[in-house]
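R.M. (postdoc): so does anyone remember the format we settled on? I'll just put the structure tokens first.
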């Protein structure tokens, strides 16, 4: 997704086996710039260690990183570490939020 000018990573609480199977099944997974999978890392959201490890792995600064998730507890944990964070409710709302934050063009 770097082609759009924004790196995009998948952070998931999926089991290793499920992730590997879905990676093969769904083409869109290959569009991400990287993955951070709880089943591979041994820690999951909303544990602060999860976010700290992911930021470190991908060389991201919390204040320059936007995290979105459909679970408010995960969003709150990310925000507590200084990430810009938003709860996903639907695609249209997320798109409007990304435009408002300057991540996407109108």
């Amino acid at each position: 997704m770097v082609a759009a000018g924004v790196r995009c990573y998948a952070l998931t609480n999926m089991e290793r086996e499920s992730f590997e199977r879905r990676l093969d099944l769904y083409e869109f997974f290959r569009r991400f710039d990287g993955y951070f999978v709880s089943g591979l890392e041994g820690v999951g959201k909303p544990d602060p260690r999860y976010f700290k490890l992911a930021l470190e792995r991908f060389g991201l600064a919390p204040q320059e990183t936007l995290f979105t998730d459909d679970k408010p507890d995960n969003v709150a944990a990310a925000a507590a570490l200084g990430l810009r964070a938003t709860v996903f409710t639907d695609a249209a709302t997320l798109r409007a939020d990304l435009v408002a934050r300057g991540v996407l063009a109108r």
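R.M.: ...and that's the designed sequence above, right after the tokens. Also worth knowing: The chain has a mean pLDDT of 93. The longest strand covers residues 9-12.
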